[in-house]
């Protein structure tokens, strides 16, 4: 062998281009040979099991926290829904108290004339209509309209010169809350003259 090399690459067949790297240490003492060095560099099965157990505990704790948070959110939502059902009409009830106060004041009067009673009832009706407007309760007063069975309830059919199924009389007004029918209007409709 030549030039203090342990092997000569030129002697190997097919390895004409391979040359030793300068400064590389190819001596055998760079390879760990004893078992102590192997144990320090490679984790043992016990270490791996312990690491997995710790990770498992951590994930279990995170899962329990997430589950508890989900349960708390669900309970809060149930409470909110229960309170919405229970107190949802609180604002409306508060507004209606003024109407009730006006009616009680009218009944408490000792000397009542027809004119003062009519004025008082008119003012109370205006209070009620203001409450209805504030809460988007709309009146259905369909005189002259064609019968709509989704909004009107026909109570009678009367002979009339008006077009057939036209509303000619309203017995009781209907009401809608936010464009949803809460009471249909009770009406009478026209039918053809039998003459």
Could you characterize what this model shows?
By secondary structure, this protein is an alpha+beta fold. It has a domain at 137-195: Head domain of nucleotide exchange factor GrpE (Nucleotide Exchange Factor Grpe, Chain A, domain 2, Roll), CATH 2.30.22.10. Helices cover 46% and strands 17% of the residues. It is built from 4 helices and 6 strands; from the N terminus they run ααααββββββ. It has helices at 35-41, 45-87, 90-108, 114-134, and strands spanning 137-140, 152-159, 167-172, 174-177, 180-183, 185-191. A 3-stranded antiparallel β-sheet has the order 1-4-5. The chain has a 3-stranded mixed β-sheet with strand order 2-6-3, with no helix packed on it. A hairpin with a 2-residue loop joins β4 (174-177) and β5. α3 (90-108) runs antiparallel to α4. The longest helix is centred in the middle third of the chain and has 43 residues, at 45-87. It is elongated, with a radius of gyration of 46 Å.
Helix and strand arrangement:
Layout: H1 35-41, H2 45-87, H3 90-108, H4 114-134, E1 137-140, E2 152-159, E3 167-172, E4 174-177, E5 180-183, E6 185-191
Parallel strand pairs: 2-6
Antiparallel strand pairs: 1-4, 3-6, 4-5
Q: Can you count the beta strands?
A: 6
The amount of helix comes to 40-55%
CATH homologous superfamily grouping of the domain at 137-195: Head domain of nucleotide exchange factor GrpE
CATH C-level label of the domain at 137-195:
Mainly Beta
Strand line-up of the largest beta sheet: 1-4-5
The biggest sheet amounts to:
3 strands, antiparallel
Instruction: Flag low-confidence runs.
Output: none
First-last Cα distance: 137 Å
Following the backbone from N to C, one meets helices and strands in this order, namely HHHHEEEEEE
In round numbers, the mean pLDDT is 83
Coarse shape: elongated
Q: The CATH topology of the domain at 137-195 is what? A: Nucleotide Exchange Factor Grpe, Chain A, domain 2
Integer-rounded radius of gyration = 46 Å
* Portion in strands: 15-25%
What structural category arises from helix and sheet content? alpha+beta
Tell me the number of helical segments per DSSP (H or I, 4 or more residues long). Answer: 4
Question: What is the CATH-assigned architecture of the domain at 137-195?
Answer: Roll
